[in-house]
Write a structure and sequence with these properties.
This protein is of the alpha/beta class. α4 packs across α5.
């Protein structure tokens, strides 16, 4: 028996809208003992996916390539040796680079993680990239206590919104910085509703004395913008604090004066979720983290990002992005 598959593929590196194509093929439903057949329900598009397609990401896949690292899928068949999953289970990837922009696929069962059937589709499809990024940055660099402060730019990004929600859950102050825009008051209200203590535009933050006895200087700052935005964040990091860079959406380098290291003893480091996942593949903490995140979704402590579900046939729209929303490919 065979299964028809619709999938996105690129045979060369380049601009995603130019090199990615929609294709069809058939795959056998006859499974090896360790394999599972999955019906992909929804696949998210992340910036790293698009950078990978251009060939500029640190990891280059072999071509031709089905992109995608994140999705939610239903198990439709299992090999004779699969004991941890059953037909009907919902699963998400437990490893990067599986190629998730497809309607169906045959995969190794060990590369997938079972989740409760009650999880919202958007939350499930976006579970394994942005929430772990936010979670690990808040857990791994500084021992934060209730009442401490975290500072971040791009507070309206998917990671930024999760950071605010986790800080609210854990009793941590979270100050966010965003670019100015026509609907800035609405955006500020939205982000405060998610858990941000204060939200400033880049211009407001640069000229405001934000921190005081009632709002302590941040022990941890999270930067995914770079350039002048990052340099402004550094100004307010507490003595002995930590400055973590996990992206550079401005594409501008960050200039850090020697005084930051010598006189203020600030530690500057980076975080790359892909590398953390690879180094911690068998670490029980990874399973604990995913279960903790899922529990927070179920309890209402985390909210799935605002998303637009886009049929795979409209993949050009999905690759182009929708302002202010996470693009998620669907297959029905």
């Amino acid at each position: 028996m065979e299964q028809e598959v619709r999938y996105l593929c690129h045979q060369e590196f380049g601009a995603p809208k130019e090199v990615v194509q929609l294709q069809k093929k058939t795959i056998s439903k006859q499974l090896l003992e360790s394999e599972i057949l999955l019906k992909i329900l929804a696949s998210s598009i992340n910036p790293a996916d698009l950078i990978t397609i251009t060939g500029k990401y640190p990891i280059k896949p072999m071509l031709p390539c089905i992109p995608g690292n994140e999705c939610v899928a239903r198990v439709e068949g299992i090999g004779s040796g699969v004991k941890t999953l059953a037909v009907g289970d919902l699963v998400v990837p437990f490893r990067s680079g599986l190629g998730t922009w497809c309607s169906h696929g045959v995969f190794n069962a060990a590369d997938w993680f079972r989740i409760p059937s009650t999880v919202d589709t958007v939350a499930a499809a976006t579970l394994t990239v942005n929430p772990p990024t936010a979670y690990r940055m808040l857990k791994d660099f500084v021992t934060l206590k209730p009442g401490d402060t975290v500072l971040q730019n791009a507070a309206n990004s998917a990671v930024g919104q999760i950071v605010s929600q986790l800080c609210r859950k854990w009793g941590i102050n979270c100050v966010g910085v965003v670019r100015h825009r026509p609907d800035i008051d609405t955006l500020k209200a939205t982000l405060r509703g998610l858990g941000a203590t204060e939200i400033y535009t880049e211009e407001e933050f640069a000229k405001t004395e934000v921190f005081s006895d009632t709002l302590p200087a941040p022990k941890l700052a999270l930067n995914c913008v770079g350039g002048e935005s990052a340099e402004t964040l550094l100004r307010d990091v507490a003595h002995g604090g930590t400055f973590v860079t996990y992206g550079c959406i401005s594409t501008r380098n960050t200039s850090i004066p020697a005084s930051v290291f010598i006189y203020r003893d600030i530690k500057c480091c980076g975080f790359w979720r892909t590398n953390w996942t690879r180094e911690n593949h068998g670490n029980p903490e990874r399973v604990h983290m995913l279960k903790d995140i899922l529990a927070m979704y179920e309890a209402g402590d985390l909210t799935a990002p605002d998303a637009e579900l886009i049929p795979i046939e409209d993949y050009q729209k999905a690759l182009g992005g929708v302002h202010g929303k996470k693009c998620i490919i669907t297959y029905e």
